[in-house]
Specification:
This protein is mainly alpha-helical. Helix content is 75%, strand content 0%. It is built from 6 helices and no strands. It has helices spanning 14-38, 41-59, 63-81, 84-101, 110-126, 130-156. Helix 1 (14-38) packs parallel to helix 5 (110-126) and helix 5 (110-126) runs antiparallel to helix 6 (130-156). The longest helix has 27 residues, at 130-156.
């Protein structure tokens, strides 16, 4: 093996991770808009059932179960969008952010708020209101992303010893 051969890992900086969150937000909003335009009655029923499951898990304060149900609901929205190219991009971004997203539901009250947001998104999709579905999804991803952005920035700037004050 020659020089500079091997596996290299690029640790993304905070700015790149925040930009990745922005991309996720916009892609998810586009998928929700498309789902509102294209979802079948059966797909809407499946989304409503998945949304009710997220509500039950939020009420039970079950973050692990909620995270799984959340992923299931989002996958149903992706499927209903009918756009596999956008779906693959969202999945790629979600994999890049997985370490940060898993902590997104740790904030007190976030499960209940997220479940409320899901109800709005699913209702907008069911009603065929693409603009409202897009706006609701953007707000949903932004709300979760704010907590994640705080984690990203904290990871890059761990607390150190307190600065000594001049005497």
């Amino acid at each position: 093996v020659g020089p500079r051969a091997g596996i290299f890992v690029n640790k993304a900086g905070a700015a790149e991770r925040v930009s990745t969150l922005e991309a996720l937000c916009e892609l998810e909003a586009a998928l929700a808009r498309l789902a509102a335009q294209r979802a079948s009655v059966g797909q809407c029923e499946a989304m409503a059932k998945a949304q009710r499951k997220t509500r039950r898990l939020a009420d039970a304060n079950d973050p692990d179960g909620y995270q799984t149900a959340n992923a299931e609901l989002h996958e149903l929205i992706y499927s209903a969008s009918g756009n596999p190219v956008l779906v693959e991009q969202v999945r790629r971004i979600r994999r890049r952010l997985a370490a940060y997203r898993s902590r997104g539901f740790d904030r007190p009250g976030r499960l209940a708020v997220s479940a409320d947001e899901h109800a709005v998104i699913v209702r907008c999709i069911r009603d065929g209101d693409g603009a409202a579905a897009s706006d609701a999804m953007r707000a949903h991803i932004n709300a979760g992303g704010e907590a994640m952005a705080a984690l990203v920035l904290a990871a890059d700037n761990p607390p150190g010893p307190p600065a000594s004050s001049p005497t």
